[in-house]
Amino acid sequence: MEEPEELLITISASPASDSWGFVGVVAVGDQEAYRTIRAFNAPAEALGATQRLLADVLGGLMAGQEWGSAQSEFGHAPRRTELDFGLRSKVGQPTSNDDG
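^ thats the sequence. predicted structure below, dont judge the formating
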């Protein structure tokens, strides 16, 4: 079987199983990965809550992974200068004028 070129994570709303509102659904490709445990009054509310939840989870996972990678790279908790924080890292070094 050939591997797909893309695998999409989608967020949708679905009627709650007890027919009292809507739940948010996260799917990876064709596989349902998660349904919210809370029901919402409208599909838009379910979508918004599920989007925030997924963003919080992914953001936390990615931040932790990046921090761990930086610690491994530097051998200690990274310093601001090592992470290129601040104005100095954004401006760059002055260029020399060799015209004379």
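The mean pLDDT is 86.
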